[in-house]
Amino acid sequence: MTKKLKISFCTVCMNRLEHLKKTLPKNIEDTMTYGNFEFVVLDYNSKDGLEEWIMAEMSQYRAAGLLIYVKTRFPEYFLRSHSKNVAAKHATGDIICNVDADNYIGEGFADYINREFMEHQHIYLTVPRDFGKKDCYGRICVLRDDFMAITGYDEDMTDYGFEDFDLVNRLELLGRKARYFSNSQFLQVLNHDDVTRIENEHNIHSINQIYLRYINHYSSELLYLFKTGVFYMGIVVINRLVNSKSVYNVFIENRKFSYQFSLQNNCWVKGSYIKSDDGIVLKTCNKQISLTPISTGKMQNRRGEIFYECSEPEDFQTRVMFFSQINNRIKMEKNKEQKIIRVNTIFGEINSIKNRA
């Protein structure tokens, strides 16, 4: 008889009740035949009735020890790395498997995980990067001992995305090898837009205005004004156009880029700003830039360069998403370049009440 390792399926949730209502009961029922498992749900300060639903509708699973419910009321905004670490530290299984609230795992998934870890040593399970469904990229299964050895997700990555890729990079540095999910039935998701992905994050609520200055056919300058009086400014590059000389000379080339966009020098200019009827004054430690309004939604600097406000909701959200992703991506690339395995001194710490009654 094959040994069954205990598997902890970890889900973090901030205001995702409508997703969890559909996925969690189904995922638990699809795992019942495996036997040696638990689902850990971290309620990351949800305000949508998640706690009430868990208590009313999921009590039978909690009573059976199949569902561990962890509640915290302190984070104002969603932090992916931190929340995933909190959930993992409440897990008791031999294997930790992250399952996003919008993911279905499918029948037989637990048996598949167990078989992979029993038949292969020094591995982790992940989704192929060319799979095409980015909502599944968070599905990573790893031995609990390996997760703790690399100190979990990098909690310096406080924005959106790439924390999963960073975890995988550091598992590779630890000497673990990827095994890929081969059955698409294990990777079914509830589809939703990018607005939903970032609606609980700090940036979408903290960025007051965004301005864009066109430089040439492959680069633009972005200016982010935060409600706190802080600004970030940087040049965004369209990688495939950098060497094309002109938009009229763009042909299919035998080269590929890992990412569509980059931040020039991987660096933002940061400082403070003052806003008045006369315009905006940007201040750094050694420089001051004045922007003067010339018409609605347009600002101009002393060189005559024009900054256009990104005021359309879709355009604004796209720029917020870029800001969030590029910051995490730069951190991921730095960890990989410096071959950092252990990224946190303390991780997954929070005031919580376990398995609330």
From TrEMBL:
Coiled coil: none annotated. The keyword Transferase applies. Keywords: Transferase. InterPro entries: Glyco_trans_2-like, Nucleotide-diphossugar_trans. Gene3D superfamilies: Spore Coat Polysaccharide Biosynthesis Protein SpsA, Chain A. The keyword Oxidoreductase does not apply. Residues 8-122 form the Glycosyltransferase 2-like domain. GO terms for molecular function: transferase activity. PANTHER family: NUCLEOTIDE-DIPHOSPHO-SUGAR TRANSFERASE CONTAINING PROTEIN (PTHR40743), POSSIBLE GLYCOSYLTRANSFERASE (PTHR40743:SF1). This is Glycosyltransferase family 2 protein. It comes from Ulvibacterium marinum.
